[in-house]
Design goal:
Elements: E1 8-9, E2 12-21, E3 24-31, E4 36-42, H1 48-62, E5 72-78, E6 90-96, E7 101-102, H2 103-107, H3 114-133, E8 146-149, E9 152-155, H4 199-203, H5 209-225, H6 235-244, H7 259-267, H8 279-290, E10 341-346, E11 352-354, E12 362-363, E13 369-376, E14 381-387, E15 394-395, E16 403-407, E17 413-418, E18 421-426, E19 431-437, E20 441-446, E21 451-456, E22 463-467, E23 474-475, E24 485-493, E25 499-506, E26 513-518, E27 525-528, E28 534-537, E29 540-545, E30 548-555, E31 560-561, E32 566-569, E33 574-575, E34 580-581, E35 583-585, E36 589-593, E37 597-606, E38 611-619, E39 621-626, E40 632-638, E41 645-651, E42 656-659, E43 667-672, E44 678-683, E45 690-695, E46 703-707, E47 713-717, E48 723-728, E49 736-741, E50 749-752, E51 758-763, E52 769-774, E53 781-786, E54 793-795, E55 802-806, E56 812-816, E57 821-829, E58 833-835, E59 839-843, E60 856-858, E61 864-874, E62 878-883
Antiparallel strand pairs: 1-2, 2-3, 3-4, 4-6, 5-6, 7-8, 8-9, 10-62, 11-13, 12-13, 13-14, 14-15, 16-17, 17-18, 18-19, 20-21, 21-22, 22-23, 24-25, 25-26, 26-27, 28-29, 29-30, 30-31, 30-32, 33-34, 35-36, 36-62, 37-38, 37-61, 39-40, 40-41, 41-42, 43-44, 44-45, 45-46, 47-48, 48-49, 49-50, 51-52, ...
Helix pairs in contact: 3-5, 3-8, 5-7
Length: 890
């Protein structure tokens, strides 16, 4: 579709059209949040191959950060006219807006002066070297994809870029020869632009970085001569020229350095083995020429040919293997007296995302495999495994619902948490066995003596130990109330298999940190002041502090940190709820995930999913609640400065938003009182976690209703205002539903307490019925039961559901699905309860928030929905660092 000036895509306002090509329309736009100009590229259709190319470009550019590569700022999708039709969505990339002209436009004026041409060639080659190092081959390098700006040349358009496995034959090209010369890559045509394609691309054989070096040679030749090296009147003639002819040599009398002729001829060798073998060597040669060295005699092809040296660093034994950056990473090993650091990315499986809550990607003890948890659209988690000598991850059967895996010392088995149990899976047999039954667990470690230490009831848990062969868990640590300890979590054995590290969380900073203890001689000792898990591997201790992953030299025998820490990576994903950071390490490698980021906006939608308006600015929202009169909205939003959740209140009549909670701690799950005068919420000001209430006007200080060391979530207020329903987790169960009396001593009363998860309680307007979410069937479903108890219980959802909401008259019940559907059910909730068949009203890109938070709200008449809608999303891949993993900077 064509966009007009003034149209909006999320926060971006279209200014004017810049161009149209086979891979999309490009517009100049303004980022209304930052007030800066951007370029927006729109996907021209919804065909699967176009979408795949579009996504490939986003991932390729996102993996690169280089001054001569056009920067990617954002990626998003805007619902089309029919929000329920995914194919009508507008997919777009938001990129750096460059002022200048394309090299193709400049070449229309003729040859480029030698010094300018060399400067442009150096910038392009520098960008290619960075892309190739990251494992990305451009495959469509041409003058139209080079922008000349005041700051130098910029490389554009990675729409058909790919990552490859060295030595693997390319798939047949399926070339359709066009009868015209295409300045842009057209849909359905050969992948690349004909005049700049290497012979191996045309023949459908091996394609690697040397194809980009061929294209660069074509560009340099054209800049210096003003002519394309392989020109013809038809496409067939161009192909024949590339495969059989030699371009006219560059006139050395017209250039300052005669050696440039031999440099270009080497780029254009028909045999890839006879070309420059990597962009870095070519860049060095171009710089010699620029600096005045006529290196005619020094120009030689790299002595380390593509096949002469291994191109892939092995994870465990130094063998050449294929590893994944968007499917693969292309790195050329160089001879060096010290270990080479190799970084590459591992994407989640198709149609899946890495499980959040800082569930680490765990690397095996020998550094050759990784195991991780993913969530699919339907919300079912599962463990997957990937060998670093393979491009394809594989699901592990029998691990459905699994989370927080960890390896056995020999790497032959994996332990994980699922179905209220700690389980183990033999990788050879792919059969899961239960080690012990537990309440929710998070984080464990398996010693070489056969003992497992794990953390249970992570919200207020201690550490337990159990034999890996099975048995009854024994409590290993006890929270010390005098030290205000709130959690013992993330155990990790040291090399001796007896001592282990673990994280102690406390409301007193001087007592929090990484501690070390022992199975045989427990005597806890504080090792490091940090608020994340830690892993001892090799000669280093790995940990995360304020989002940065560090490796500090560590003497395990003497339990001493011996030198300053080294920085490994920044923006590592961590979950403040349990102190877990998404990383793991072995003697040979470290793996981590960067923080994911979703930008959402609160959209008003009607019952057909049509957008009616919005509330507030785009941000990171995690909960939304409407006041009883529908005139105010309370919501939780992530504070970009502190990283904590802050509650805000928006007045719809005045379109005014004011901060509601002011303390720096995390506050969440606001719930309105029936008369709209107060808001109850959860928080932990001054380290005192509990349930609070505050006047909705903000005129008074917050008042504690129930203080404890458990992190509950308010769910609803009873219609008469006498009870506050909330989720509460106590040792021995998953989250349960409790009622807090609003009068008297505020002593909570259990309403629904089982070994399963029960949460998101909502009272019917009559006060007789309670709707809630439970996973007792193995997945989240919505149920209704009598608030006063009894045997009456009805299943409302039929294919999964959560976050129930009653219409004000009690005649309709809404809920959401994990696929983004808003469902409506006609109900009768008078003396008895009856439910009709669920009907999907619409689907939207609804944010997936934590359990207990609501991603949508419904007006009293059930006609409008305020939906926390994803407007842009960044879900980073896992990054593996092999060999010189700690060769970072201080």
């Amino acid at each position: 579709m064509r966009l007009a000036p003034g149209d909006r895509l999320g926060p971006y306002e279209i200014v004017s059209a810049l161009g149209v090509g086979g891979m999309g329309e490009v517009y100049k736009a303004t980022d209304t949040r930052l007030g800066r100009g951007v370029a927006i590229k729109i996907l021209p259709g919804a065909e699967p191959d176009l979408i795949a190319r579009f996504d490939r470009e986003a991932r390729a550019v996102a993996a690169l950060a280089h001054p001569h590569i056009c920067a990617l700022y954002d990626v998003g999708s805007e619902p089309g006219a029919d929000a329920s039709d995914a194919s009508a969505a507008i997919r777009y990339l938001v990129m750096e807006h460059l002022e200048g002209e394309t090299l193709s436009n400049r070449l229309k004026k003729g040859a480029i002066p030698f010094d300018q041409a060399i400067a442009i060639a150096i910038d392009i080659t520098d960008a290619l070297a960075a892309a190739h190092k990251a494992g990305i081959v451009h495959r469509d390098l041409k003058p139209a994809n080079v922008m000349i700006t005041r700051s130098g040349a910029k490389l554009l358009d990675f729409g058909i870029a790919r990552t490859i496995e060295p030595g693997a034959a390319a798939a047949p090209a399926g070339v359709t020869l066009a009868t015209r010369e295409a300045a842009l890559t057209g849909h359905g045509m050969i992948l690349g632009t004909l005049h700049y394609m290497a012979p191996e691309q045309l023949e459908g054989t091996l394609v690697d970085p040397r194809a980009d070096i061929w294209a660069l040679g074509c560009i340099v030749h054209e800049m210096l001569t003003g002519r394309q090296p392989f020109a013809a009147t038809t496409a067939a003639g161009v192909v024949a020229s590339i495969l059989t002819s030699t371009p006219a040599p560059i006139d050395v009398t017209a250039v300052r350095a005669p050696s440039i002729r031999r440099l270009v001829e080497t780029c254009l060798a028909k045999d890839p083995d006879e070309r420059w073998q990597n962009a870095r060597d070519l860049l060095r040669q171009l710089r010699w020429i620029r600096d005045g060295a006529d290196a005619t005699d020094a120009v030689v092809r790299s002595g380390a040919g593509w096949r002469a040296h291994p191109a892939w660093m092995a994870a465990a034994a130094g063998l050449a293997v294929a590893v994944a950056v968007l499917g693969a990473v292309l790195l050329r090993a160089t001879a060096a007296p010290t270990a080479t650091t190799v970084r590459f990315n591992v994407p989640p499986p198709p149609d899946a995302a890495f499980y959040d809550f800082a569930d680490p990607v765990r690397i095996s003890p020998d550094g050759s495999r990784i195991v991780f948890t993913v969530n699919r659209v339907e919300g079912q988690s599962q463990l997957w495994i990937q060998s670093l000598d393979s491009l394809k991850p594989e699901p592990l059967r029998g691990t459905e619902g699994g989370q927080y895996p960890f390896w056995s010392p020999d790497g032959r088995s994996i332990a994980f948490f699922a179905d209220h149990a700690l389980k183990r899976l033999s990788l050879a047999e792919q059969a899961a066995q239960t080690i012990c039954d537990i309440s929710p667990g998070v984080g464990g470690s398996w010693s070489k003596s056969g003992a497992i230490v794990f953390s249970s009831d992570f919200i207020a848990g201690s550490l337990y130990t159990v034999p890996a062969s099975g048995g009854t868990p024994a409590k290993l640590t006890t929270l010390d109330a005098s030290r205000q300890e709130t959690m013992h979590v993330w155990p990790q054995f040291l090399a001796d298999g007896d001592r282990f590290l673990y994280l102690v969380r406390s409301t007193r900073a001087e007592n929090a940190g990484i501690y070390v203890s022992s199975l045989t001689k427990p005597a806890p000792r504080r090792l490091l002041a940090v608020d994340s898990n830690a892993v001892a591997a090799g000669e280093h201790l790995y940990f995360v502090r304020q989002g940065t992953l560090w490796a500090q030299p560590f003497d395990q025998a003497r339990l001493r940190l011996t030198a300053e820490p080294l920085r490994i990576a920044e923006r590592v994903w961590a979950f403040t709820g349990h102190g877990g950071a998404a990383f793991s390490a072995s003697d040979r490698a470290v793996v981590f995930r960067e923080a994911s980021k979703q930008t959402t906006e609160l959209w008003w939608l009607d019952r057909n999913g049509r957008r009616l308006g919005s509330v507030g600015d785009p941000g990171e929202y995690a909960h939304v609640a409407l006041s009883p009169d529908d005139r105010r909205v309370a919501f939780e939003r992530l504070d970009p400065t502190s990283g904590n959740g802050v509650i805000w209140v928006h007045e719809t009549d005045r379109n005014a938003t004011a901060r509601f909670t002011v303390d720096p701690s995390w506050n969440w799950s606001p719930v309105w009182s029936p008369d709209g005068s107060r808001i109850a919420f959860a928080g932990s000001p001054d380290g005192k976690a509990g349930i609070y209430q505050k006047m909705a006007s903000g005129a008074a200080e917050q008042e504690p209703l129930f203080l404890n060391d458990l992190l509950g979530s308010p769910g609803d207020w009873s219609p008469d205002g006498q009870w506050l329903l909330w989720n509460r987790t106590v040792p021995g169960t998953d989250a349960d539903i409790w009622a807090l009396p609003m009068a008297g001593d505020h002593k909570p009363v259990p309403i629904l307490q089982t070994r399963f998860y029960e949460g998101e309680p909502r009272m019917a307007p009559s006060g007789r019925w309670l709707a809630y979410t439970s996973n007792e069937s193995g997945r989240n479903e919505v149920y209704v039961r009598s608030f006063s108890g009894g045997d009456v219980k009805r299943l409302v959802s039929t294919t999964g559901g959560r976050q129930p909401v009653w219409r004000r008259d009690g005649k309709e019940l809404f809920y959401r699905t994990d696929a983004g559907g808003i469902m409506a059910v006609d109900v009768k909730a008078d003396g008895t309860f009856e439910a009709g068949a669920p009907q999907e009203l619409f689907r939207a890109r609804i944010q997936q928030s934590f359990a207990g938070r609501y991603d949508y709200a419904v007006t009293a008449d059930g006609q409008r929905f305020l939906v926390n809608t994803v407007v842009s999303e960044s879900r980073p891949m896992a990054t593996v660092v092999l060999n010189g993993a700690v060769s970072g900077t201080k």
